[in-house]
Structures are given as structure tokens and as C-alpha cells.
Design brief:
The chain has 153 residues and is mainly alpha-helical. It is built from 5 helices and 3 strands. It has a 3-stranded antiparallel beta sheet with strand order 2-1-3. The longest helix has 28 residues.
Length: 153
């Protein structure tokens, strides 16, 4: 399953692109963010100015959790780390999904209040895709580590 190794390493390119890509677009400046287009990075910049605790959480969920999981899985896949660490990295992937939930919640709140017309941009799909691919890679890596399934390289 060499392709899993390289697909996982590809996430080291995909995630940073997704962090700078537009997640949401609105016809007017969005409340709290003061702009019409939000990316993970621009949202974090705004949060650091207004709510440091939430900024720390989102920074962990959106940037550090997916990055640490991708690097950890790469170390396991290339034989540089024990497979005992795999459950920890699977948890990191699940934590990264919390960020997507928060973005979806923001869209629902803004649309529900009727403040602005909010559209989901291509960056949200890219970010979601990277997270889902990462979850899939970790599931397949876990299956491969099962004693009943022979290792394929």
C-alpha cells in the first residue's frame, strides 16, 4: 500500500492550500469577521484580535491536529514510529473535523439570522476533502496493521 504513503504526504501540500483558500463568501461583510470572504487563516487572524481562547482552539483543530496527524501517520507508514501511536493520530483526525462543524454552524447562524447571503466556497470543499482523505488513510493504515491482514508494500 505504497500509494497510501504518498497520498498522505500529498496532504502536506493540500492542507496549506486549504488553509488559505476561501471557505465562505458573502454579499456583504460578514458579522464578527468584517469581510466578505473568509479563509481559515483570515478567520484566525480576526479571532486572535477578538477571542484568543477560541483562536487557540481553532488553531489547534484546523492547523495543528491535521498537520500532526499527517506527519505522525507518515512516520508510522515509513517505519519510523511504532503503530501503538495510531489511535492517537486517529483522534487527531476526529478533532480536525470539529473545525468543519464550527464553520458549518457559522453558516447556519448567519443564514438563519438573515444578515447576509452566505455561499460556501471551494476552500471548504478542499479542506473537508483533505480531512476525509486523512481519516480514510488512517482507517486503511489501521486495517493494514491488523495481525489478520498481511502487510503489503
Amino acid at each position: 500500500m505504497t500509494y497510501l504513503r504518498y497520498l498522505n504526504l500529498g496532504l502536506l501540500i493540500g492542507f496549506p492550500i486549504a488553509w488559505f483558500a476561501p471557505l465562505l463568501r458573502a454579499g456583504i461583510n460578514l458579522p464578527f469577521f468584517g469581510q466578505s470572504e473568509i479563509s481559515v487563516i483570515s478567520g484566525l487572524q480576526t479571532l486572535w484580535e477578538t477571542d484568543v481562547f477560541l483562536a487557540l482552539l481553532i488553531t489547534f483543530f484546523a492547523i495543528f491536529a491535521p498537520l500532526m496527524k499527517t506527519l505522525g501517520l507518515a512516520l508510522i507508514q515509513f517505519g519510523q514510529m511504532r503503530r501503538k501511536m495510531l489511535p492517537l493520530f486517529n483522534l487527531m483526525g476526529k478533532l480536525a473535523m470539529a473545525d468543519i462543524f464550527l464553520i458549518a454552524l457559522y453558516v447556519v447562524v448567519v443564514k438563519g439570522v438573515g444578515v447576509a447571503k452566505v455561499e460556501v466556497a471551494w476552500g471548504l470543499y478542499l479542506f473537508t476533502g483533505c480531512i476525509l482523505i486523512s481519516l480514510g488513510i488512517s482507517m486503511l493504515t489501521k486495517k493494514r496493521s491488523s495481525p489478520l491482514i498481511p502487510a503489503i508494500s
